[in-house]
Amino acid sequence: MYSTDTYYNVFPWHTNHFGSLHGGIYMSWLIDTAGILMSSISQGNYLLASVDYLYLFRPARLGDILRVTAEAKASWSSSVEIEVRGCIKRGTNEELGAIGLMSYVAVDENGRPRSLSVKIEPDQEAEKRRAKRLERKKKISGDTSELLPGMSFGRSYVRTIYPEHGFGNGILYAGKMYMMLDEALAIVAKLYSKGNTFTASAGSADFLVPVKIGDILEIQGAVEYTGNTSLDVGAKIFAINHFTGTRRLVSRTVFSFVSIDDQGKPRPISKLEPSSEYERSIMENRIKEREERIKLSKTLQQRACQ
Ligand SMILES: CCCCCCCCCCCCCCCC(=O)SCCNC(=O)CCNC(=O)[C@H](O)C(C)(C)COP(=O)(O)OP(=O)(O)OC[C@H]1O[C@@H](n2cnc3c(N)ncnc32)[C@H](O)[C@@H]1OP(=O)(O)O
């Protein structure tokens, strides 16, 4: 079995003013551990190709120790599917705090897929998940349209990618990208709900092209669905080359947030009324997806930490 564990202390600089671990840092720790496992499987360079889901079920709090465990579920010619779990340790007890599923691809020095020397036989379910991913990716490949025009509530988050955001081969590190995504989309959620929010999950994302150091990263985030206390903020991520003006779609995803009051308890928000056909069709898709997401979340929460 290919698996690895890492441990993290939750220190004050990792937490928000409720004393719980920031969603973006939580997600980046899950990605770090999956990457460490992928290093030992790939024996060389690799890239994060996709995330199926990242659920944050329970907050890790200041002073907690988080054990992140990554396990390879299946591999194909160059790709590996890895499951990660975040286990919150309190004394001798462990509670499942987070779970995620992602796929990595072993690459050569030019960033092109290369064959792996190990094989982790996929079962039928893993084959189905792989087919779904590739189908999903096909749907967004070639799309360069912007998300914000036609949406009622959104914001654009723009920044330059510096060497401190990379992992040594000129590419933005996926863990940093998730920290930026969480910040950008939480800003939209907080402005919309006029209060504080907790990050509940990140939905599927396929990484079409790498973001290079020196690129300008633009995250367009818009409210795509509102429930009673929760909201989905969708995102389109673009890498912009300012010399040529080229804008490439990096990924399309959605984060779910829960609006909270001063005690950290769920708090009602106003309903989003779609203002265009475009916005209505996005919302309808989110409603369908959401049912599936909630069902999966309930099943995954039953998993143990071992
Ligand atoms: C300095 C020296 C150190 C040396 C020591 C080494 C240590 C190493 C350190 C690195 C430590 C940090 C590593 C961090 C990892 C990031 O942070 S990566 C940053 C975020 N990710 C990216 O930037 C990736 C951007 N995307 C891409 O570059 C390309 O899309 C990819 C992922 C390379 C795939 O290329 P492609 O041409 O689209 O893929 P394609 O040829 O169609 O398919 C190739 C394989 O990819 C799979 N695939 C393609 N798309 C997907 C998808 N969406 N989902 C799942 N699988 C997919 C296919 O199924 C196929 O698999 P196999 O059948 O071969 O097994």
In short:
With 306 residues, this protein is of the alpha+beta class. It folds into 2 domains: 1-122, Hotdog Thioesterase (Thiol Ester Dehydrase, Chain A), CATH 3.10.129.10; 137-301, Hotdog Thioesterase (Thiol Ester Dehydrase, Chain A, Roll), CATH 3.10.129.
Bound small molecules, which ones? Palmitoyl-CoA
Mean pLDDT across every amino acid position: 95
Radius of gyration: 19 Å
Shape: globular
Class by alpha and beta content: alpha+beta
GO biological process, one term: acyl-CoA metabolic process
InterPro entries: Cytosol_ACT, HOTDOG_ACOT, HotDog_dom_sf, Thioestr_dom
GO molecular function: long-chain fatty acyl-CoA hydrolase activity
Protein name: Thioesterase superfamily protein
Model description:
- This protein has 306 residues and is an alpha+beta fold.
- The protein contains four helices and eleven strands; from the N terminus they run E-H-E-E-E-E-H-E-H-E-E-E-E-E-H.
- The longest helix is centred in the last third of the chain and has 25 residues, at 277-301.
- The protein has helices at 23-42, 124-140, 174-193, 277-301; strands at residues 3-9, 46-56, 65-75, 79-90, 93-106, 154-160, 196-202, 205-206, 216-226, 230-241, 246-260.
- It has two domains: 1-122, Thiol Ester Dehydrase, Chain A (Roll), CATH 3.10.129.10; 137-301, Thiol Ester Dehydrase, Chain A, CATH 3.10.129.10.
- Strands 1, 2, 3, 4, 5, 6, 7, 8, 9, 10 and 11 form an eleven-stranded antiparallel beta sheet that branches.
- It is globular and about 50 Å long.
- Helix content is 27%, strand content 36%.
- Strand 4 (79-90) and strand 5 form a beta hairpin.
- The structure holds Palmitoyl-CoA (PKZ).
- The site of Palmitoyl-CoA has 32 residues, from helix 1, strand 2, strand 5 and helix 2.
